Amino acid sequence: MKKKGYGFIKDNESNNQIFAHESETIETLKVNDKVSFFIKKDLKELNAAKVRVCI
After folding, report:
1. How far apart are alpha carbons 55 and 46 in whole angstroms?
2. 2 near 28, Cβ under 8 Å?
3. Residue 14: pLDDT band with limits 50, 70, 90
4. Count of alpha carbons within 13 angstroms of residue 23, beta-carbon side
5. Does residue 1 have a pLDDT over 60?
6. Residues with Cβ < 8 Å from 54, sequence gap 6 or more?
7. Residue 24: per-residue pLDDT
8. pLDDT per residue as tens digits for the range 27-41
């Protein structure tokens, strides 16, 4: 997660870019971390929820 408090996750299955806000992360993320998450859809875009690093 960038210092801005948000970033994008690339979904390997669909190749979509999914918006992720730090308020939806369960732990601290670094660039290129493999993560698991749920997808929430709002009016404009897909959003990641309950984002956590995969072990």
Report:
1. 24
2. no
3. confident
4. 1
5. no
6. 33, 34, 35, 36
7. 94
8. 988 888 999 999 998
Amino acid at 25: T
Residue spans of beta strands (DSSP E) within 1-55: 6-10, 17-21, 35-41, 46-53
Position 4, amino acid: K
* Cα separations in angstroms, 22 against 13, 18, 27, 32, 45: 23, 13, 9, 16, 17
The token pair that represents 15 in the structure block:
């190749």
Structure tokens at 33: 């971390």
Task: Please tell me whether residue 24 adopts helix, strand or coil conformation.
Answer: helix
Neighbours of 6 (CB within 10 A): 16
Distance, in Å, from the CA atom of 13 to the CA atom of 4, rounded to the nearest integer, reads 26
